[in-house]
Amino acid sequence: MSIPEGYVRYVTPDFEYFDPVKLAKETEKIVCRDDQRKYTGFNLWRYYGGTIDGYTCGCCLRCVFCWADWSRDFPERAGHFYTPERAFERIISLAKKYGVNRVRITGAEPTIGKKHLLRLLELFENSDISVFILETNGVLFGVDKRYVKQISKFEKHHVRISLKAGFPEEFAKKTGALPESFEIPFQAIRNLLDCNVDFHVAAVTDPRIMSFKERANLIRKLKEIDPNLIKTLEEEVLEPHQTALVRLKYAGFRRWHYLLPFRMIDFVRSLPSEGFRQRLKRILYRTTLPK
Fold this sequence. Notes:
The chain is of the alpha/beta class. The protein has one domain: TIM Barrel (Alpha-Beta Barrel), CATH 3.20.20. It is built from 11 helices and 9 strands. A hairpin with a 2-residue loop joins β1 and β2 (about 35-45). α2 packs across α3 (about 115-125). The protein is globular and about 55 Å long. Residues about 255-260 and about 285-290 have low confidence and may be disordered.
């Protein structure tokens, strides 16, 4: 398998920002063969009320807090190629085994490999599965509205689009992508709305990695698109996965603060005093600044 020269792996302090659309095309050549797509596995997950998850290889962002395994960074070394039919059969067999009727495609970036994904959606459309959850960073949906229109013809899907930052410079620092590509996921949200796709927005607003000012700007941008987006906004709290810890270290972020139990954030949010909550969050945030 031929790997493009200079293929981006992970963020480091002297990192040169990349074009995520170009990286998506390079990654597709590694993880896709015609309608086949690489997966690292299929498992039962209790989130969303119980789903069977398909974990994909390869992504077009390099988020420093990403939980995905190293198949994100080295997709040529991991996973196996599956046709849409084979992936469908694997997921259906596990759904029957565990008695669940929801599926989720997640892992790295599932929208890489359009031919595979559209065929997979078609197969599930004619099955007993009730919901097909598609997780995405929004890059390809932001630059290709036709892709979103093709997704919109299916009825069982639900898209979860994850935002990584609230300012262009923070987007670049956290994902490795060019600052100007910050707007692409927001355009994806507009495209999803225009095409009447069922979706909700998630955002990594954990105060250990995002300031209050940055969070406020992210929410402002969502309100400008559609105020109703805030009603269903899923605010993500990061968990100390080993891959995330290593990526934070490689990127030059202080590592020790990340060992703080993620449940601490839920505890802070539950405190009755707004002033006390804000003071605690500021303490937490000060530990997340890069070196």
